[in-house]
Amino acid sequence: MDGLPTPRRYLAIFAVSCGTALNVIDGAIPNVALPTIARELGIAPSAAVLIVSVYQLVLVMTLLPFSALGSHIGLRRLYQCGQCLFIVSALMCFFAPNLPLLLAARTLQALGAAAALSVSSALVRSIYPAAQLGRGMGINSVVVASAAALAPIMGGFILAVASWHWVFAATIPLALLSLAVGQRSLPDIPAQQDRYDLPGALLCALTFGLVISGLLSLSQGESPPTGLSIVALGIVIGIVFIRRELTETVPTLPVDLLA
C-alpha cells in the first residue's frame, strides 16, 4: 500500500511530529537552566555544560547505528522503544540528586532520542503516498525548526515558575501522547534485513565519538596534543569503518549513496 489512508495518516504524522519535537526540545531546553543547575548542585559552570554536551555527543554517535537497527527489527518497534526509553530517562533526570546521575540519565535520554529520530524520516515515507511525500517531509522540517526555536522559550518560562527539575519533565506528556497515538496509527513495517552489522555500528559510534570529543576538548582549552590525538584516532577508525562498509552487503553506512 502506498501510504496510509486518512484519517490514520494524520494520526501517524501527528505521533511522529510529537516525537520529533520533544527530542529536539530536550536537546536544547537545558541550555537556559545550566547556571541554575550549576548553582543548586554546587558544581562548576564548565561541568554543567556536560549536561548538554553528553546528550548531543551520544545522539550523534548512535543515529546511524540505530537507523540500521530499524531496518533489522522494524521501524515502529524501534521508534516506540526509543520513546519509552526517553520517558523513563526523563523521569530519572527529574529525580537526579547529583551531576553523575544526571549525566547517566541524559545518556539514556539521548539513546532514546536517537532511536526515535533515526527512523522518523523513514516512517514519514511510509505514512505518505509517493505523490505527497514532499508534504510529509515539509511538515517534519517545520516541526524540527519550530521545536528548536521553542525550546529556550519553554526553558525560560519553566524556570520562572518552577525548579530546574521540571525542565527535563516538561516533555513527558508529549512523549506519552506520541507513544499512545503511535501505537495505534504508525505503520507496522516488517524488518527488511536479516543481519545487523554490529561491528560496523561500533566503529561508526567510535568514529563520531572520538572526533567530536577531541574537537570539544580543543574548544574548551584542554591540552592541544591530547585533543588532536583523539581526533586523529577517530579519523583512523573512520577510515577503517568506511573501508569495511565498502565490502559489507548490509552496511551501517551505505557508502555507495555518497558517491
Short description:
The protein is mostly helical.
Number of helices: 11
The coarse silhouette is flat
How many structurally independent domains? 2
Q: Find the CATH topology of the largest domain.
A: Growth Hormone, Chain: A
Main β-sheet description: none
Roughly what fraction of the amino acids lie in strands? under 5%
Percent in helix: over 70%
Tell me the CATH superfamily of the largest domain: MFS general substrate transporter like domains
Distance between the termini: 31 Å
**Uncertain regions: pLDDT < 50 for 5+ in a row?**
none
pLDDT averaged residue by residue: 91
CATH architecture of the largest domain: Up-down Bundle
| Series of secondary-structure elements, N-terminal to C-terminal | HHHHHHHHHHH
Name of the level-1 CATH class of the largest domain: Mainly Alpha
Number of strands: 0
Radius of gyration: 19 Å
Structural class: mainly alpha
Topology:
Elements: H1 8-28, H2 34-41, H3 45-48, H4 50-73, H5 75-95, H6 99-127, H7 133-161, H8 165-169, H9 172-185, H10 198-219, H11 224-245
Q: Can you walk me through this structure?
A:
This protein is an all-alpha fold and 259 residues long. Helices cover 77% and strands 0% of the residues. The chain folds into two domains: 8-194, MFS general substrate transporter like domains (Growth Hormone, Chain: A, Up-down Bundle); 197-259. Helix 10 (198-219) runs antiparallel to helix 11 (224-245). The mean pLDDT is 91.
